Structure formats: C-alpha cells, structure tokens
Amino acid sequence: MSDGPWLTPELTREALAALLHQHALGELQSVSQLSGDGDRALLQVNGQLVVKLARRDAETRDLQMEAVLFRRLHHATDVPCPEVLVHDPSRDTVPFAALISRRPEGVAGTTVWPNLDLPTREHISEELGRLCASVHGLHWPVYGSLFTTGPVDARSARWADIVNSKIANMYHIAEQRGLLPLQTLDDLVTTLNDGDAVFDRPSLPTLVHADLGLGNVVLRQNHAQWHVAAILGWEHSLVADAAWEFATPWRDPAEALPLADSFMYGYKERRPLQEDLRVRQRLYRLMRLFEQLIVTADQSGTTEERKHTLQATIERLLKPR
Questions:
Q1: What dotted CATH number matches 107-318?
Q2: How are beta strands 11-12 and 6-8 bridged, if at all?
Q3: Helix, strand and coil in the chain, % to nearest 5
Q4: Which secondary structure element, helix H or strand E, spans residue 312, and what is its range?
Q5: What is the pTM of this model?
Q6: Could you report the per-residue pLDDT of 10-34, keeping only the tens digit for each?
Q7: Which secondary-structure segment (H or E) carries 113?
Q8: Residue 225 is inside which H or E element, if any?
Q9: CA 37 to each of CA 15, 55, 121, 281: distance values in angstroms, whole numbers, following the listed order
C-alpha cells in the first residue's frame, strides 16, 4: 500500500484516521490493504482491526447484513466470529459505508492442519460440528441468501420455491452451453425434480454457513490444545434446509476439511440429524456439483480435467443404488 497520503484513489490516511477517532478506536498507526478496488476495500489497521469499506448500494447492504449476522451470532450463540465494533453507513467521514471489526487472534486453519496429529484433528472437527449445530439453532423468517454474493437470488417462505427456481435456471444455462451430455442433463434434472417431496419437508429456515473448510477457520493454541478461535467466510451463507450444510463440507479431498465422522459426532451432541439426511445430502450434493460445473465454466484458467471430474462425479451420483 502507498506510503503517501492516499490509501486508495478515494481514501486518504487523514480520513481513515478521522474515522477511527470518531469511533474512539485510537490513533492510526499502521494500515495495509488486504484487497479492494475503487468501490470497496478491505484494510488491516493497527494490526488488530479489520476495516471493510463499500460504496455501491448492494455491497453497502451486505455490510449491514454482515453486522447483523455477526452480532446475532455473538449474542445468541457460542460461535466465535469477528466482533463488530462499528457499523457506520453514514459516509460522513469517509466516502464509504464502513464496518470495523476486531481481528481474531490465531492462525489460518489451513496453515497448521497438515501438521496436526489425528487426535487433534478429531478434537477440532468435533468442536466445529458443535459450533455448526449452534449456528443451525438460529432460525430466520424466510429461506434465501443473506448477501448479494450468495448462491440464490430469491427469498421465499417455501424452500421448494428456492430449489425449483435454482434447478430451472441451472438447466437453462447448462443446456445452452452444452456443459453436460443431454442424457446426463435430463437424468440430473429428473432426479432433482423427483425430490419435490423432500424439498417440501425442509427444516425450519436455518442459517447455514455452507463452506466450513479449514480455510474459513482461525485456530488458536491454548495450553498445548488447539481450539477454534473464529469462523470466517460468511459471504456465501444462506437460510436453507439444515441439510444443505452437509452437501458441501467433504466435497473435495484435496482441501483441508474437518473429519466427517468427528464433525457429525460433535453436531449430534447438540442437535438431532434429519431422519432422511442421506437422501437430502445426495440431492443437495447433486445441486452443488451442478452449480460448481456452471461456475467453473465461467472461470478463466479452469482445466478440462476439473470439468471432467465434476461431470464424472455427477454421473456417479446419478447411478441407481
């Protein structure tokens, strides 16, 4: 980041210092930009604060929802997440809406996970399962994404409406682009449509994180024991059938992921599983793979091997059991 007076084309050090002063957060001593462009920025300030700035209306709404979500998690659960210190949408001091939170102490889970022994991995996985169950205890009035970057566009009191709209949209895109052989595509959509009876009987509208890999977990060591210090990466969370959570955690063996059996053991300590969970997992995993295939096709640099892997996984899940 520049050492001059301008941190970004729209933000000066003086303005950022004034923002901190306004909210009694001390003097500006150091700042580094973690990411951003002309309309948004993610800053680390004084080594212990994370400052998110947004200018566009959609991203401003996302900051507001993030503040609501973190505060609700903080006050209603034992789920560790960033502590919100300030949500300032006024743009009086800086030309952005601002969300300031305390940086969680610890290390990224992916940096230490490969070196942990099996009992420690089991311990962390069980803890994540218990925390996931606490998240699922937060019910909301309707189903759908919380953020504009979320995986579904609509909100509805009926989960089946969300699912069916998503299936129809993905089918249209996949057919136009030829992402799957037509027979496989028809078999996939038929299988998902046959799940109507399942989609019509979801859990209550439940907050799901939808990406509980170690890349979104901060770990901290206390008296030689590792613990979960924070869960990050909530931008793709949504309000859904609770089983949606279990379509994603173990989808890619190459990732640093919690141990499935230990995770579920911890989860069941706090919440019962849905009786037809395996049926729901299969349907939702097919939907997530379908979604990943479409997203992958839009990403530059994606290998054909990755596309073929997704196609092959979809075809394997479609085979009669």
A1: 3.90.1200.10
A2: antiparallel
A3: 45, 20, 35
A4: helix 304-318
A5: 0.88
A6: 788 999 999 999 999 999 999 988 7
A7: none
A8: strand 225-231
A9: 17, 10, 37, 38
**What CA–CA distances, in Å, run from 294 to 165, 184, 233, 280, 289?**
15, 15, 21, 21, 9
Strands 107-108 and 206-208: unpaired
pLDDT tens column, 210-236: 889 999 999 999 888 999 999 998 888
Domain ranges of the chain: 6-102, 107-318
Structure tokens at 95: 């030309």
Sequence-ordered alpha helix ranges (H) in 79-225: 109-112, 118-136, 159-177, 182-193, 196-199
Q: What backbone phi and psi angles, to 5 degrees, belong to 218? A: -100, 130
The three state secondary structure string of 30-79 is CEEEEEECCCEEEEEECCCEEEEEECCHHHHHHHHHHHHHHHHHHHHCCC
Q: Give the span between the Cα atoms of 216 and 155, in whole angstroms.
A: 25
User: How large is the greatest C-alpha to C-alpha distance in the chain, in angstroms?
Assistant: 64
Residue carrying structure tokens 């150091």: 30
Q: Is 98 helix (H, G, I), strand (E, B) or coil?
A: strand
Note whether 6-102 and 107-318 share their fold. Answer: no
Q: C-alpha angle with apex 307: 241 to 150, nearest 5 degrees?
A: 35
CATH class of 6-102: alpha beta
Rounded to an integer, what distance in angstroms lies between the CA atom of residue 257 and that of residue 277? 20
Q: What are phi and psi of 15, to 5 degrees?
A: -65, -40
Q: What is the identity of the amino acid at 152?
A: V
